[in-house]
Amino acid sequence: MSGEDFNYLKEAGNLTKNTLSVVNSAYSSISGSLYLAIRNMSGSEMQHSDLDRPLTILGGLRSGGSAFWTEFADGFTAIYSVPKSVVAKQGMGFRQVGKGMWFGVLRAMTMPVNAPLRATFSISTGLRNYAAGKSDHGQRYRYPRYFNEDELMPQYNPLYAHAATALRCCDSGNFAD
Length: 177
Prior knowledge:
The chain is 69% helix and 2% strand. Strands 1-2 form a two-stranded antiparallel sheet. By secondary structure, it is mainly alpha-helical. Helix 1 (3-41) runs antiparallel to helix 3 (94-131) and helix 2 (57-90) runs antiparallel to helix 3 (94-131). It has helices at 3-41, 57-90, 94-131, 158-169; strands at 170-171, 174-175.
């Protein structure tokens, strides 16, 4: 096998990887949009920013599985919970209760379609983000801000914030936790 043949194989691999990435990205966007369209028919008022965006394959599987069961549970309880939330927002009345019942029945009927759509959106988004090289850095921790002696909050300084947190955890030389 010559060097030129190896370059062809490498480029064919890159073409396949990029094609699968584009297909996965399109599927992720389509499944998310379909999910939102069907969900919003039942008065949900969700937006794309309300959906989770996992960064890894494992995060996508975890988020997708959780979203699947959450959608099923929401579909089963929608006949009660949706009218309750509509009445809480719009006031008590025959029209509001009827509207809530309609939205609840509609959400319960669309639940078998919405649950897999939401799960596949999360899984494909995690796969897409992982393929793009994004990584989950874990939970970021930043020490809480401190207030100076004048009860003012100065510009953030990690050393002062760490010291203030340590002092808050101490009580007469003993740690509170």
